[in-house]
Amino acid sequence: MHTGSVSTKELSYICDSMKNEETLVKLCVHGAVESQNPQLKQFFYQLSHERFQDYNQLMNVLDHHSGQTQYS
Amino acid sequence: MYNQSTSTMGQQMGQQHVALPDKDMANIVLSELKRMSREYTTACLEAANPMVHQTFNQLLQKSLADQMQLFQLMNQQGMYNVTAAPTQEIQKEQQKFRQCGFETQQFMQQYLGGGQTTAGMMGGQNAQPTSQATMNQMTSNYGMPSGMGTMPPGASSTTTSSNINASGNPQMRAGSGTSSGMSSGSGMSTQMSSTTQDHSKKYLI
C-alpha cells in the first residue's frame, strides 16, 4: 500500500468519526434550542458550529484521497 | 388488539412534548464527547497515514478540550459534583507506592547496574544528561524523610533534603569520595557509576 493512500481501516474510522460528529452536532442543536439554562444554551450553540467544522475537516480528508474535490 | 393498543400509545406519545432536563441533555453530550475521545484515541493509534493520524490527533485534542469545558460548566452549575478523596486514603496509597518505588529502583539497579549501563546502552555522551536527570528524580522521589516507617531493611534514613543541594542535585554522602561538580565528558560515566554505587549502598545493604 502506498504510504500516501488511505487504508480500509482508516476509511472505516473516518466514516465512524463523521457519523459521531453528525450525531453530536444534532444533539448540540437540540440542546441549544431546548435548554433553559442560558450558559448551556450558549455552549451548545457554539459547540454545534465547531463540531460541524470538524465534520468538514474529516470530509476534506476523504476529498483529498478520493481525487474528487467537491467540498471545501 | 395489539394494533389498537399501539395506536393509542402512539397518540398519547404524539400529544406530549418530552422536555429533557438540562442536566440530562448535558450528560448525554458529555458522554458522547467522552466516547468520541476514546474512539479518536483508537483511530489515532491505528492510523498509518500521517495526514489521517494528524487529523485524528487534532480532533482528539479538541474533543478532550470540549469535554473539559462542558464538565467545568456542569460543575459550576451544580450538575456534576466531584467528591475529594480522603487525605488518609491518599497517604496510604502514597506510602504503598513509595515502597513500590524502592523495589522498582532496586530491580533497575540489579539488572541494569545503574546510570553507567543505561548511558552505555543509549549511546554514551548524549544520553548521560537524561540518565542523571532520572537519577536525580529517583533520589528526590524516594529519598524518604525519616520516620516514614516504610524504609527497606538497612536503608539509610539520611537521604533527605539535607542531601539535596540548592540546584536539586543529590549530594554524595560523606566518605564516598565523589565530586558532584562534573558536568560532561567521559568523567560523567565515572560520576554516574559512583553515584549508582553510592545509591546502591543506601538501599541494597
TrEMBL record, chain A:
Protein name, per record: Spore coat protein
Organism: Chengkuizengella axinellae
Automatic annotation (TrEMBL), chain B:
Comp. bias regions, Low complexity: 146-162, 175-197
InterPro entries reported for this sequence: Ferritin-like (IPR012347), Spore_coat_CotF-like (IPR012851)
Highest taxon above the source species: Bacteria
Protein name: Spore coat protein
Gene3D superfamilies, sorted: 1.20.1260.10
Span list, region Disordered: 146-205
Record carries keyword NADP: no
Keywords, alphabetical: Capsid protein, Virion
Organism name: Chengkuizengella axinellae
